[in-house]
Design brief:
4 helices; Creatine Amidinohydrolase; four-stranded antiparallel β-sheet; alpha+beta; about 25% helix; five-stranded antiparallel β-sheet
């Protein structure tokens, strides 16, 4: 699939984005104290099956180390790739990142949300809010004629002026018939550098910030990536279409017809 999507492909990408947004919203609504991350993963599996979507996370990396969950459920210092586990119970004061990536009618949708369960400290609340703001700032730069570096610079400067760590080891990506396509979309950069953006491209923008240093480590499961200093992290993501005008968020509930199917 080319970097520039056809009108028909964009219609399908919009449908896939709406489906991913719907699944994410359903799992978010199921997230509460006492629920396990396995419960949330199974909720995602159930909702995907009911609307004809297929998880792009499940068995990703096979055969060497297949990812065992249908979505990524990451808590607190877990930056990405948290695995659903029956003994990983949501508690008051946790922050939860839900990363839903799926295929719907042959096209990919990918989105992430971080939110608190109950009361949290002010610095953690601010971490979440600033990371969400950085996503908005990054999306605003996803315009025809701009560059990948413009997106990264907007995200990076949002973090740095708020004294937060910017995760550099993990990046956003192009997206289409495959979950991961070119180009890579880092959360740092210099203006007017890197890949030039063109109308018809679809990319996943996903800032990841930390309260402490952005250095990471991977747990023994080979998947879960956490902050090396065990400080909190937050992660937001949207799949975005670049147009001749303003960028369009494809992972938007308004694009979802699934809510009428359940």
């Amino acid at each position: 699939m080319g970097l520039i999507k056809t009108e028909e492909e964009i219609v399908r990408m919009r449908e896939a984005g709406g489906c991913a947004a719907f699944v994410l919203d359903e799992v978010r609504k199921a997230t509460k104290v006492g629920v396990s991350t396995w419960d949330l993963d199974q909720k995602a599996k159930e909702v995907m099956a009911s609307v004809g979507a297929i998880s792009s996370a499940y068995h990703y990396g096979a055969p060497s180390n297949p990812f065992p969950s249908y979505i990524c459920v990451s808590l607190n210092d877990e930056v990405v790739h948290g695995i659903g586990k029956k003994d990983r119970i949501i508690k008051e004061g946790d922050i939860v990142s839900l990363d839903v990536a799926l295929y719907y009618k042959g096209f990919a949708g990918d989105n992430t949300l971080t939110f608190a369960v109950g009361a949290i400290p002010e610095d953690t609340r601010r971490l979440i809010e600033v990371t969400r703001s950085a996503l908005i700032e990054g999306i605003a730069q996803a315009r025809d004629g701009n560059f990948i570096g413009d997106i990264g610079y907007a995200i990076q400067t949002t973090a740095e002026k708020n004294h937060l760590g910017v995760v550099r080891d993990l990046v956003g990506h192009g997206i289409g018939r495959h979950m991961h396509e070119e180009p890579q979309v880092p959360n740092f950069g210099k203006p007017h550098t890197g890949f030039r953006l063109q109308a018809g491209m679809t990319i996943a923008i996903e800032p990841m910030f930390t309260l402490g240093a952005p250095k990471l480590r991977t747990l023994e499961d080979g998947w879960t990536i956490v902050t090396a200093d065990n400080q909190m992290s937050a992660h937001f993501e949207h799949t975005v279409l670049i147009t001749k005008d303003a960028p369009e968020i494809l992972t938007n509930l308004k694009n979802s017809s699934q809510s009428n199917l359940l």
